[in-house]
Write a structure and sequence with these properties.
alpha/beta
Length: 450
């Protein structure tokens, strides 16, 4: 029997566990997560109105319900109160770290720390009920918002700011976030990129959703679009970028009228400073850019101030060091060879990585499948050597004896029941529990683990 710990229950962790138990009938996997809830960014990163993508939880659920897979939530790895990496290797033959990229990139400009300036991830965590999120009045007294970035996360937060209460009510959004967004006075949302429309990172499906909002109109400035050399003749572009340009061209040709909210898509503007008004963000100063002929942009020395009481940056993610593991600060990843962790250039026995901490924050949810497959192949190739080392017959029993009480699958099912009951009491469907205390209380109603 080979006992493996997978750290992280998002897509990369679940795909890793799935590959292990499917390919080797002797493998038993414990999937450990810091949170008492599984599914990672599928639960806490996918927008509440994207029900089709959120339904991926059903696939991940099947993995975690496998007879040789256990979910162990509420277990901290590293830190003063967490299990150290060395202890994990005493309890398991192998450990696979699938912890994602835990922090956001910064703009690095003056005023970025002003009240009213946030990362898009912080905003997403709030309306997705992440227990670490804080409700700091994101949209209170906000009339105009600026979203910096032109990827899918930027589109998500723009769309959530532009949706009305009737559209948000059927989602699983926590009640406090729903109430705040329903009462929002945001009327203008600027989504801004420093490069052109042919280089934007959003997908066409996400982009089109902005144009389908019932009470928001999308405006684009054809003069900005025309700065992009590929805009006039997009036929040489990859299909995805070509479709994006076609959507933008349609909006430029038919400006909307009569909507309560306006979404302005802006291009070739680089943020250089956040300006304060009464001690908080009041505007963003942008420098106009132009293509440099090499795929990038260069500044023109011409500036434009855009009023905003809320600024959300969405310019990428970055991995953070894991206590006890090597870390490449330049790439924000753990050094590895086909998923095997490298320590000072040599393969570390029994330690593996998959997902963003392995390859960086790239790709979509499905990209985690081949990434996990490579790591699983490496681990199973090493299995004969790994299995030679004795480990406890039941690591969970050892953890409990040491005072660690994981939230098992029954605890998660109890949280699901509590969220369904909360939704019913509010006249909604499922409504997420938004804080650690309510999650722990709900999990504690589960029957005792055997």
């Amino acid at each position: 029997m080979l006992r493996v710990a997978v750290i992280g229950s998002g897509p990369s962790g679940c795909y890793t566990a799935q590959g292990l138990v499917q390919q080797d009938p002797s493998v038993h996997v414990d999937v450990l997560d810091r949170l008492p809830c599984p599914y990672g960014l599928v639960r806490y990163g996918v927008a509440p109105d994207h029900e089709k993508i959120k339904s991926l939880q059903n696939n991940l659920r099947a993995v975690l319900e496998h007879e040789r897979v256990r979910f162990l939530g509420g277990v901290q790895i590293g830190g003063p109160r967490g299990l150290p990496a060395t202890r994990l290797l005493e309890l398991y033959h192998a450990v696979v770290y699938c912890v994602g990229a835990a922090t956001d990139r910064h703009l690095g400009i003056p005023g970025e720390q002003l009240p009213g300036s946030w990362s898009a991830t912080e905003f997403v965590s709030w309306y997705s009920a992440h227990p670490d999120a804080v409700d700091d009045g994101y949209v209170r007294d906000v009339r105009s918002a600026v979203v910096i970035g032109v990827g899918n996360v930027a589109v998500d937060v723009t769309r959530m700011l532009a949706r009305g209460a009737a559209e948000l009510n059927p989602t699983d959004m926590p009640e406090a976030a729903l109430a705040a967004l329903a009462a929002s006075r945001v009327r203008e949302i600027h989504m801004v990129g420093r490069r052109g429309p042919s280089q934007a990172r959003f997908t066409t499906k996400e982009l089109r959703e902005l144009g389908a909002l019932p009470d928001a109109g999308v405006l684009v400035d054809p003069r900005e679009l025309e700065l992009d050399p590929a805009y006039a003749e997009p036929s040489a572009l990859p299909a995805a970028q070509r479709r994006n340009v076609e959507v933008l061209r349609g909006w430029a040709a038919a400006p909307p009228e009569g909507h309560a909210r306006r979404i302005r898509l802006r291009f070739f503007l680089r943020p250089v400073e956040l300006l304060a008004v009464d001690g908080r963000v009041g505007a963003v100063r942008f420098e106009r850019t132009v293509p440099d002929g090499r795929g990038g942009v260069t500044g023109t020395g011409r500036y434009e101030d855009v009023g905003a009481q809320l600024v959300l940056r969405s310019v990428g993610y970055r991995g953070v060091p894991l206590e006890g593991l090597p870390f490449d600060a330049a790439t924000g990843t753990v050094p590895h060879q086909q998923g095997r962790v490298l320590r000072e250039g040599s393969v570390a026995r029994g330690e593996y990585v998959a997902g963003w901490i392995k390859r960086g924050p790239t790709g979509v949810i499905g990209t985690n499948r081949p990434c996990a497959k490579e790591t699983v192949t490496s681990l199973l190739a090493d299995a004969p050597v790994l299995a030679d080392r004795p480990v406890p017959e039941d690591p969970v029993a050892v953890l409990r004896a040491e005072g660690v009480e994981p939230v098992g699958w029954a605890g998660w099912l109890a949280i699901e029941r509590a969220e369904a009951e909360l939704g019913a009491s509010l006249g909604r469907t499922v409504v997420k529990l938004p804080d650690w205390q309510s999650l722990r209380t709900a999990a504690a109603t589960a029957p005792p683990a055997p």
